[in-house]
Each structure stands twice: as structure tokens, then as C-alpha cells.
Write a structure and sequence with these properties.
Helix content: 10-25%
Number of domains: 2
Number of helices: 8
Largest sheet: 7 strands, mixed
CATH topology of the largest domain: FAD/NAD(P)-binding domain
Length: 324
């Protein structure tokens, strides 16, 4: 069993930022990640660019230089690899945490590769691994994708995009521009107001001119190998279809958090309970960092506004652990 002062679960940008602050404070630690380094960013679309400029994504004092004001996915992956190497972070990749038990001495952590003991735990969990499911017949077919990487495979294909937020709009426009026949299935009566201001007129004009077919106030009922059936205000319709790209959003690992004893507010976002001044949850010495703090409100915390969580957490832990 490995014994550490602090264990960080999640090797995304905020998990790495926490590792840097822990290392600077002189505590023993490791970062455990079930996938690759910055696993959520790795699963972003291949051609994606960030909303933020590169300096707002920097951590650990390592400069982030990009070719354009808004860096690309590939530039971000390169940057966070460089951060990990520069700081020589103790990151354990492709190791899934299976159980966390709190006892009087701290935390016992069981992973797919080993056992650990720590005085404190930091959850820097992402939400990109648990998509919202459509829960309809045929969702298990290979033609149904909850993740999108690039448009080329959809050239010459009939594509149904589910959703009306940024991801769905980006996917619809990109696949249409690369030669797909695109339909959008949208539960609401319009494209979301939260869609990027420079993109929203584009998708609305494509819908208005008929280049992209949009079914508003509609839902998917059933998916078959060659069609999808949807409910619309005009009744059920069957559409010929080759691929379904369900851009329905993602959610934090609530079950995993609940298994540790973390409590949640009784609100629409299922927000976890934590002290905003220290980031400590309702469990002593168990801290939350990054997007996981927002519960279902996944657009509240980003890299640029949650980097500070690392410093806040370690400041509190220094007072606690160094006092003992």
C-alpha cells in the first residue's frame, strides 16, 4: 500500500494545478487518472478551438504560447504534457479509482492497479465521460455517437444531430459544410440563447434557408439501422438516417461522489455541498476542485476561473496538516 499525504483524483488541468500546489507545499502525493492525461480535453473534437485565450489556460507558471489568440485542442494537449513534464508530476494514468473509504486516519483508496492511504483527498473530476442518454430503443446501435471528433466520416451521409446548445450547433454546421445531409432534433422551440454569439446567426440562417432541417419541439422516439422516428408538433415522423450524433451533454459522476458520503444541495443542479472559502466538502479533508463543484451546471466552472481552487485548497491543507 502506498502512503501519501494527499491523493488527487483526476488529471485534468485543475487536477494538475492541484498537483503543482501540493508539490510546492512539500507534501507527498499522487494524481490518479482513469484515462490519459487531460482525458476530457483529449475527447474534444479534433478541430476544436477554446473560447479562452491561451494565457487564461496557463497553470504552474508555464507559458502557453499558441499560434492564434484562441488555442486549439492539439495545442492544449501539447501544453499540458509540457506542464506535467516541467513539474515532474507524479501522475498515474489509466488507473481507475474503484473505492474510497474514510476512516479515522484519513482515506483508503482502492484503484484498478493498487491501494493507497492518504490524509486528504482532492476530487478534480470532469464530467465528459458520462453522457446523458436518450433512453430510446436503438440507442445501442453503432451509428449512435455521444462523442464527436471530426466531420470527414459523415461526408455523403444522412446525419441527425440531437440538441440545440454549442456542441450540437458546431457539429451540425461542421458536418453540413463537409458534405453531410443534416437534420437537427431539438426539444426546445429555438436554438439556445447561450450559443456563441458569432455562431448563432450562422445556424439560424442555415435553418431558415433550408440547408439544415430543424425539427423544433421534437424528440427521438426510436432509432433503427436505417431511420429514426421522432415526435413533432405535427405528429410522428420517420426520417432516413445513417448516423445519430447525440450532443445531449454530460454529467458529473454523482454515484461515485455519493459513495464517499458527499452531500448535495436540493436544487435543480444537484450541486455538491462544499465550503466556498476552502473548497472542502461536507467530509473532513475531502476537497472539490474544478467543474465538479457546479453539479449539473457544467458551464459554471472552467479552467480559467477554477485554477484558483488549487491554491485555496492547499492553503487550507497546509494549516491543517502542518499543525499535526
Amino acid at each position: 500500500m502506498e502512503v501519501k499525504d494527499i491523493i488527487i483524483i483526476g488529471a485534468g488541468p485543475i487536477g494538475l494545478a492541484c498537483g503543482i500546489e501540493v508539490q510546492k507545499a512539500g507534501f507527498s502525493y499522487c494524481i490518479i487518472e482513469k484515462g490519459c492525461l487531460v482525458n476530457s480535453l483529449y475527447h474534444y473534437p479534433l478541430n476544436m478551438s477554446f473560447f479562452s485565450t491561451s494565457e487564461r489556460l496557463e497553470i504552474g507558471g508555464v507559458p502557453f504560447i499558441s499560434n492564434n489568440p484562441k488555442p486549439t485542442r492539439s495545442e492544449a494537449l501539447e501544453y499540458y504534457r509540457r506542464v506535467s513534464t516541467t513539474w515532474k508530476l507524479n501522475v498515474k494514468l489509466y488507473e481507475k479509482v474503484e473505492q474510497v473509504i474514510k476512516n479515522n486516519d484519513g482515506f483508503l483508496v482502492t484503484s484498478s492497479k493498487g491501494n493507497y492511504k492518504a490524509k486528504a483527498l482532492i476530487l478534480a473530476l470532469g464530467f465528459y465521460d458520462l453522457p446523458y442518454l436518450l433512453n430510446v430503443d436503438g440507442e445501442e446501435l453503432k451509428k449512435v455517437k455521444h462523442y464527436y471528433d471530426e466531420p470527414h466520416p459523415y461526408f455523403g451521409q444522412k446525419v441527425a444531430v440531437i440538441g440545440a446548445a454549442n456542441s450540437a450547433v458546431d457539429v451540425a454546421l461542421e458536418t453540413w459544410r463537409k458534405g453531410a445531409e443534416v437534420s437537427m432534433i431539438i426539444r426546445e422551440d429555438a436554438i439556445r440563447e447561450s450559443v456563441k454569439y458569432w455562431v448563432k446567426p450562422d445556424i439560424e440562417n442555415r435553418i431558415k434557408e433550408g440547408s439544415i432541417k430543424a425539427f423544433f419541439n421534437s424528440n427521438v422516439i426510436r432509432i433503427t439501422p436505417d431511420t429514426i422516428e421522432i415526435s413533432t408538433p405535427l405528429g410522428n415522423q420517420i426520417i432516413e438516417n445513417d448516423f445519430v450524433l447525440a450532443m445531449t451533454g454530460y454529467q458529473p459522476p454523482f454515484d461515485f461522489m455519493s459513495s464517499m458520503g458527499i452531500s448535495f444541495h436540493d436544487d435543480e443542479f444537484h450541486t455538491p455541498v462544499y465550503n466556498e472559502e476552502t473548497m472542502e466538502s461536507n467530509i473532513s479533508n475531502l476537497y472539490l476542485a474544478g467543474v465538479v463543484c457546479g453539479g449539473l451546471k457544467t458551464n459554471k466552472w472552467f479552467i480559467e476561473n477554477s485554477r484558483v481552487h488549487a491554491e485555496v485548497i492547499i492553503k487550507d491543507l497546509k494549516q491543517k496538516l502542518l499543525r499535526k
